[in-house]
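Writing this down once: the sequence line spells out the residues, with the fold written below as integer tokens. This is how one looks:
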Amino acid sequence: MLEYGIFDHDTVLVDRAIRPRHGHIVVANLDNEFTCKYLWKRNGTLKLKAGNETYPDIVPRDGQELLIWGIVLTSIKQFLI
């Protein structure tokens, strides 16, 4: 999620009460695997856009289980690992 300012080892604050919509950064569960992506939703089409060009966007296929788990409100930087 480099393009959106979220880096390895950052901690994200997630709100599960906000209704997800186009343009939100979300934590999603796709087939029981969590991922953090940009939610792109237009004209009945939904995709989870990667914020790093080395990762592909995700377009859920028929039969896949997708749950938008929550909306990322902020990321907290960690300087010491």
